[in-house]
Amino acid sequence: MSSLPARSGRRCHNALNPFHSTVYFSPDFAKELAQIGIEDADAAYFAGRGAAMGAVGPGTVAAAFYNFNHELIARHLPAVWDIASPEAVLEARLRAVDSTLRRLLGEEVIASKELAEAAQLALRAAEACTRHARPLYAAHADLPVPDEPHLAYWHAATLLREHRGDGHLAALLLAGLDPLEALVSHTATGKGMAVRWILATRGWRRADWEAAQGRLRERGVLGAEGELTEDGVRLREEVEEHTDRIDLAPYAHLGAEGVERLTELGRGFLLAAVAAGAFPADLSGKG
Questions:
Q1: CA–CA separation, 281 vs 192, rounded Å?
Q2: Is the peptide bond before 58 cis (omega within 30 degrees of 0)?
Q3: What is the pTM of this model?
Q4: 61 contact partners, CB below 8 Å, separation of at least 6
């Protein structure tokens, strides 16, 4: 049994996961990918996040990313690898991480002992992550850890994010939520991505979204106005609790004090990044 306070791993994840995501909203990422020939934003994202797995096709990415329409992915993969190799994409991504974090956090934070401490803590937690049934984590775990602390912290945040994310897919399958139903129900919590962003980036049509809402209403997960019912709230919490259980190992390995400290540091870096404009203002919500 773990002595960690309830949901402490989840709280830590909630500080690390958005920090990992800053690069994909960064103009530096678009610039670096364009410099190696990948100018389409969707192609850049699929290549940038999927490159650790190698020159994979649309089926692999659809399976690992879960909530993207396969048709959208297939417009760009595997063709994107004729433009740039996975190795070139990973190098470009790391350059984008470097410039993005320097811009968002500033040189003083980049050189701080707190950021170096956070990198050490996150890497220690990641020592207990496991590869089996976790393709995105396992692929990133095979990459070298960057030397510079801010890059090492981002790398470790990526390992922990993808480890939980891979496990989360198992929880979604157990809950009987298909890719779009997972998005619809998450957005209904008020914590997910706004509908307009989902439709603009995930390759789904409004009719697809409404059909998923209909299926969830039939199950009693959503009410007439698209809000979560009591059963829906319970289902979403069960998904998160199951994810917590299968993502416990890295945080149990780090220990309660280490998790608390990593969460504190991570929140500080995330708040600084958000204040510097890391994300679009209308990214989250039910609209």
A1: 13
A2: no
A3: 0.96
A4: 46, 50, 53, 68, 73, 77
